[in-house]
């Protein structure tokens, strides 16, 4: 796996957030994760399984950014991370991974997606336990930060 | 999916912890999760994808229990949840799911496993975003509590 495999997830995320929530994130520089830890207040995680590979994807949001996305989608800002917010994060996780799956499928990398899991809790950290390299990509916005992380075995 | 699908995960977990860490957990009553929230300080999560179904599994530990398991495996108790502990939780997640996969495979339910993800952060909560029912099973021990949760679409 190399840094290029992050790009389908990056473009899928930008597309999903622009379409669903008129939200633009500024992507930072993708990094091979060593000691860096992806940190957030609410995260969506999903497993991926294919004939050539398996792996995992996560997206973590600061609380403020998650609430802003929710506000733009529904017109009302929740007070805190509630079930509607975790549903929305699960849905974003599915849509971003589904978009990346289509883009990677065109390049001959096929995988199926498991069902998403959403974690909430202030400042939790996420570690992908995969033999392959973990690629992390930070995003900034006026409303808070987000991170995506992708890890595949054997790519 | 019905409550019986939790049993392969239950017996696999009991087996893994007894073998790896001479640790016995007392299983509570499995419940179809409605409002209950699985809560823990360190959790392992994994996606599952098969021809008939897809889903997700998680196991959450109180910090004290995770550190005790680590101590029994390595002879030394870490001060806090560090990378060795998250590696151990990822490994337990793999082993428990692998054991359950074998047991469910004997019944004709086949799936492949994605790679595990470990979340750490005091008192985080986990929500499986799956159309099917979510089954949660609590465990108690002298050293702290654990929860497993399993969710499959279309079983």
TrEMBL record, chains A, B:
Keyword presence, Acetylation: no
Keywords for the protein's UniProt record, in alphabetical order: Chemotaxis
InterPro entries from the UniProt entry: CheC-like_sf (IPR028976), CheX-like (IPR038756), CheX-like_dom (IPR028051)
Domain of life where this protein originates: Bacteria
One GO term of the biological process aspect: chemotaxis
Domain (Chemotaxis phosphatase CheX-like) ranges: 42-140
Family annotation (Pfam families): CheX
Gene3D superfamilies for this protein: CheC-like
SUPFAM superfamilies attached to this UniProt entry: CheC-like
PANTHER family to which the protein is assigned, alphabetical: CHEY-P PHOSPHATASE CHEX
Name the record gives this protein: Chemotaxis protein CheX
UniProt source species: Pseudoalteromonas rubra
